[in-house]
Amino acid sequence: MFSYCFSFSGLHFFINNRSILVSVRIPTQDGSVNCYDLGNSGATVPRIYFVNGIRVMPREHSETAAYLSLLIEHPVWGVYNQTAGQKLGSIVDILQCILDFAHTSVARTTSSNNLGKSPKVPENKIDEFLREIEKKYHVWNRATLELFRQLVIHRHERQLIIAHSQGNLITSNALFVLEDVLGAAGLSNIRVYSLASPAPAWPVGLRISNGGGGRQDNAFMNDMVALLRPHNLAKKIGVDRFQNAGDFRTYSGSGPVALAPHDVNKIIESLNFLKSIRRDLGLTPDLSPDFLRKASEIAQTQISSTGGASGSW
User: Fold this and answer.
1) Which residue among 129, 245, 262, 303 is least packed, with the fewest CB closer than 10 Å?
2) Could you give the CA distance from residue 258 to residue 8 in angstroms, rounded to a whole number?
3) Domain locations in the chain as residue ranges
4) pLDDT tens digit sequence for 142-174
């Protein structure tokens, strides 16, 4: 049995290979929900989710969720957004994104009606509602459904969502439905960290000014996907008044518009997301580049070498 141990500024991880075999799982289907806790942190609150974007294979999803669990010293619940494939399957993924984008845009038009609204489903009927949900809503994205279920089941806990790319469309849609079912007050314990979000709209109940947990945006302004978000595109052409709080820089390694700045690891390691979420968790905000490199290597090594236990929670 071998173990990893490294530290930075008093931060220590003791990563035991035997225990990792229990906690590391590779998703097997769309909407699989698995827990990643490579640092064996033991933290139980808040509950933190990672929702991946387009064209992400199961092992890549697991590596990112495992990497995040080391960086934020908390278990991360990965909600897998399954790809139809990285070649021709990308067309199917793009069509799903278009549907997600359209639904988000439409849902925003009635979101304000949920402010101050009582829940549609009483507390003692929540379990029954979740069992029957597919009879009440048309589901075209299993990841949206499973994220929604998780958020409702744990509605009395503080919950953080890290969403990358299409994962933001999934998260936004799940929150619009949650707001509709539980009223805007149902978003009071939920905070979102958007990475390269193309989502055109979010529930108004998520805003801190309306009692929600808020959202922090992180995107490179030469990321082709992030520029699909109207607010980002407006900022790109010099109109700032529509932009919300977040970190919006230009990735120096690419031209005016490119796909390279969309890489999830580049965003995690370069923009203010990591400092923000660590600060929100009461942790020291800064981590050295060497720490990030070692954590990434550990996540990749463990997912690759152990193979992970297939299945979902």
Assistant:
1) 245
2) 34
3) 3-204+262-310
4) 999 999 999 999 999 999 999 999 999 999 999
